[in-house]
Specification:
Order of helices and strands: HHEHEEHEEEEEHHEEEEEEH
Number of strands: 14
Strand content: 15-25%
Distance between the termini: 77 Å
Largest sheet: 6 strands, mixed
Helix content: 10-25%
Amino acid sequence: MSKKVVIFMIIVFMVPMFATGAPNYYLVGNASAADACNGDIEPVLWNQTVGRSALVPHYNYYDMYWGFGDYDDDDGKRGRDHESQQFPSEAREPTELNPEEEWMYRYWDGGSQLEPLTSNHHATMLVGNDSIGALRVNLSAQHRTTICISLQSLNETDNDYSADVYLMTTSEYERYTELYYSYHSENSFYWDIADSLSDVSPEWRSMDFTGWRTYRDAHQYESVDEINFALNLDGPESYTPIFGSEQWQNFYIVIDTWDNNHDSDSPAPGVVTAADVTIITTERSFILPNYTVALVFLLMMIGVVIFPFILNARYMKSGMEQAENMPNSGLVPSLERPAELPPITGDEQPEEQKSYPSIELDKET
């Protein structure tokens, strides 16, 4: 293999490490994202380009679904059934640490298709204690998106304050909400199993019974008060199940203030969290098609297969070149062919013409 080919292959493998579009590599990602948190901010068009949702401890979808929530007596008085008495009454009512509005947690999916995010926006969310606040967006594959988040406790000074930030797709967020609802429901055993599993190593995470993860299994930032990250999409985020039509995925920027089943996450801070979220989009000038990855690996596999044949051909060719450069010494002698003597040069004489001194023997002996 020539030196030019070796140098070319080294460059090909090193380019992704220094590419500015790397989604979550510490070598480039954080530095480039930190420099891209400024831009021309446009007003947020709620439920058109950005949606708002929340999960709160005083509202549990599972309890409502299985009939374990509030009910109205015949005389119009508000009450609870015997199953929901396992919850303390004060835990089922919002407190001053729960500033979320009712529409945020009762209709968290938004119910509308968002436009692709191609503009810059800034929003401030108030996230209650032991709650989840999320911004729903439809990221564009034609743009590089930088997300800058700053967290602080509201009306209190706490130097040790921290929370968790996650980026999830729609399907990942749905599994995440299942765990949250289960943790806050006495009618479910799911939280007990999830807590026993806790953190699972990355190689086994796909088999986690809890089933929730972040986008690309990488965008989880726990115990932080400020974080900047950027990502590029290979294409529209969608998948097609075995039965059914194509499912499009939105993205959820999640601010987590409850103690989930990860070992390294922050516990509930006990205060209201103010989250400043800035989203900056930059149009991409050059986008590689998705099939380039498969094409590169196909060429690598073909190279691995044909390399032994190329090496053998070069070896055989080298042997033939050496044989051509050697002097012609004739054929190998055999029983059917006598040896071919080299031509006589100079003073050399044939063996039969050479004279040797004779030795006369004594006749008597």
